[in-house]
Specification:
This protein is an all-alpha fold. The chain contains twelve helices and no strands. Helix 3 packs antiparallel against helix 4 and helix 5 packs across helix 6. The longest helix has 37 residues. The protein is elongated.
């Protein structure tokens, strides 16, 4: 009994040490990969700016001062200049970082939950359930992603919450298709067939054997989808169906600055660079994460 109690205390410690060793190994691999490290640095900068935005922004991003409108970059007190209403560009980009990251991460979470659930149900139960769900996916995929988001926003209205809802509704299908394929492959594995043959309940197979083996593809897909959702939000906001002024977002900053492209280039250049570097960082880090967690994809 004493040995059993000792083992119970040691097992969690071993599990923690194993996780720490795995993270340490991944960190060493990341440091040896230049593109992955660049992606990690860009993401870290964006996250820090998003978290500390209220403290590091030099001005209120919505404060207008017409006497200082269209000041060029490096003007005293305005590193990146001001817009047509005299608002500080740097402060608005910092505030937009928080909004863009929040939309990207929130959308990935909810689209991932919905799409993963549909994919698991379709792949595990197959038959008519799979047929109906996959036909719904096929119909939705027949519509261009941005067009579908625009239509949804035109119906339910604009604003921060509605852009998240529209992106979730339009983006869950990517998860559904990938997860369904993974589940279909897992069903043919020997350990799953053995569970079925000995009469293990379906819910137990799903919870204990199917779902844990889906974590890697879900993490990989989510890391790559964040950039897609950030760009989609910027595109929809640029067209006027997303985040609405005066709330700053990179997309509506581009929309407001498009009329000054020749006279005040900084109005669209700096928000555009923010989108480019954030999306680039997410994609570079996502590619590295895919190569580490799924080495077969690299060789293929």
């Amino acid at each position: 009994m004493a040995n059993l109690a000792t083992d119970n205390r040691i097992n969690p410690i071993r599990h923690t040490l194993r996780k720490h060793s795995k993270l340490s190994t991944m960190w060493k691999q990341l440091r040896k990969n230049p593109t992955g490290m660049i992606g990690f640095i860009l993401i870290s900068i964006a996250i820090l700016i998003g978290l500390l935005g209220d403290w590091i922004a030099p001005y209120d991003p919505s404060h207008a001062e017409l006497t200082k409108k269209l000041l060029p970059p490096l003007t005293e007190g305005h590193l990146l200049g001001t817009d047509q209403l005299g608002r500080d560009i740097l402060s608005r980009i910092i505030s937009g970082t928080k909004i863009s990251l929040m939309i990207g991460l929130t959308t990935v979470i909810f689209a991932g939950i919905l799409g993963t659930t549909v994919g698991i149900v379709a792949g595990f139960f197959k038959g008519w359930v799979d047929t109906i769900l996959m036909r719904i996916v096929d119909v939705q995929l027949s519509f261009p992603f941005i067009l579908l988001v625009l239509v949804i926003n035109a119906v339910i209205g604009t604003g921060l919450k509605n852009i998240i809802l529209s992106l979730v509704f339009a983006g869950w299908v990517s998860y559904a298709r990938v997860i369904r394929s993974e589940v279909l492959a897992l069903r043919e594995k020997e350990f799953i067939l053995a569970c079925i043959s000995v009469g293990v309940p379906k819910w137990e197979i799903l919870v204990k054997h199917i779902v844990p083996n889906l974590l890697t593809p879900i993490v990989i897909l989510s890391s790559l989808q964040v950039a897609s959702f950030i760009i989609a939000e910027a595109s929809v906001s640029f067209l006027g169906f997303g985040v609405q002024p005066p709330q700053p977002a990179w997309g509506n900053m581009l929309n407001e600055g498009k009329d000054y492209i020749f006279s005040a280039w900084w109005l669209i250049t700096f928000p555009g660079l923010a989108i480019v570097f954030t999306a680039l960082g997410v994609n570079l880090f996502g590619d590295w994460l895919r190569d580490v967690l799924d080495p077969e994809s690299k060789s293929g």
